[in-house]
Amino acid sequence: MQFGIFTVGDITADPTTGRAPGEHDRIKAMLTIAQKAEEVGLDVFATGEHHNPPFVPSSPTTMLGYIAARTENLILSTSTTLITTNDPVKIAEDYAMLQHIADGRVDLMMGRGNTGPVYPWFGKDIRDGIDLAIENYALLRRLWDEDTVTWEGKFRTPLQSFTSTPRPLDGVAPFVWHGSIRSPEIAEQAAYYGDGFFHNNIFWPASHTRRMVDLYRERYAHYGHGTPEQAIVGLGGQVFMRANSQDAVREFRPYFDNAPVYGHGPSLEEFTTQTPLTVGSPQQVIERTLSFRDYAGDYQRQLFLIDHAGLPLKTVLEQLDLLGEEVVPVLRKEFANLRPVGVPDAPTHPSRTTAAATPSE
């Protein structure tokens, strides 16, 4: 099972000081956080893609290429690649290039994003969101799987005998997760292709997450990729830790209350009760994260959001130390002990390259 962190790259004023980092400082902080993630033994660093304030990561491949050069083991991922407003040809080429630079340590999470105005900025109509996601991904798969593509669709100009370059490393395209919070069509898309499904359940109760994951697992089996238990599932989560749970709540409350995504809404207590947000001791984070298995089944990737809402870089690095030293080692052991025989590991480039080279029976 893989453990890591994801960032949305928000620029938010620290409510305890009133000061907000500049774009340069926030970008540099994200690079520091990624390198720290490898240092403490995490598996994955993932960045979102945004094209509007208060977010800064508009060019994930630039950021991940830099991180690739300064890490050795960390899997570099997106926590959203906008399949709706990016050109599939550009995605195919950009991420194949990144795959070569990182020696295969790359995967993607396709999504539609949560910013409506981004559609017209890139010449698209938000009412076409689902159709764009379906058509663009179908083309992307062909661009990676076929050396020469002739194609015509609804949303972009046709292609005639086109070859995207570079070709995927070792002939194996980056693994794809389809990320969704609320759209069953995306769970269906992930199941159809036999790809991973990442449910970023940070805003939703367990009952909703269960329904979405169950749908994906059922449809994965329907399309003949394996049993429901063999489907590839990832989950999001949010944590804030201190050795003493009361200290964690007291320190995190002003950040929660002013966060751009959920501030000025439900109370911290309501949110921690109704969603996976865990604010407390490392042991509470361990127990809460292990409970995700009760409604999502055995899954392959767990990503935590820890660097949002104006939290200082020093505090985020302390959170990473707690994750790497006290939380993730226990989670690895406990999840491994609970995992039944036959549940697959998280896909990696080496495992997928080996599988592609193994003759089917």
Automatic annotation (TrEMBL):
The keyword Ribosomal protein does not apply. Keywords: Monooxygenase, Oxidoreductase. It comes from the Bacteria. Residues 350-361 have a biased composition (Polar residues). Residues 1-294 form the Luciferase-like domain. It is an enzyme of class 1 (oxidoreductase). GO terms for molecular function: oxidoreductase activity. Residues 341-361 are annotated as: Disordered. The keyword Glycoprotein does not apply. Its EC number is 1.-.-.-. SUPFAM superfamilies: Bacterial luciferase-like. InterPro entries: Bact_Lucif_Oxidored (IPR050766), LLM_FMN-dep_put (IPR023934), Luciferase-like_dom (IPR011251), Luciferase-like_sf (IPR036661). PANTHER family: BLR5498 PROTEIN (PTHR30137:SF8), LUCIFERASE-LIKE MONOOXYGENASE (PTHR30137). This is LLM class flavin-dependent oxidoreductase. It comes from Streptomyces racemochromogenes. The lineage of its organism: Bacteria, Bacillati, Actinomycetota, Actinomycetes, Kitasatosporales.
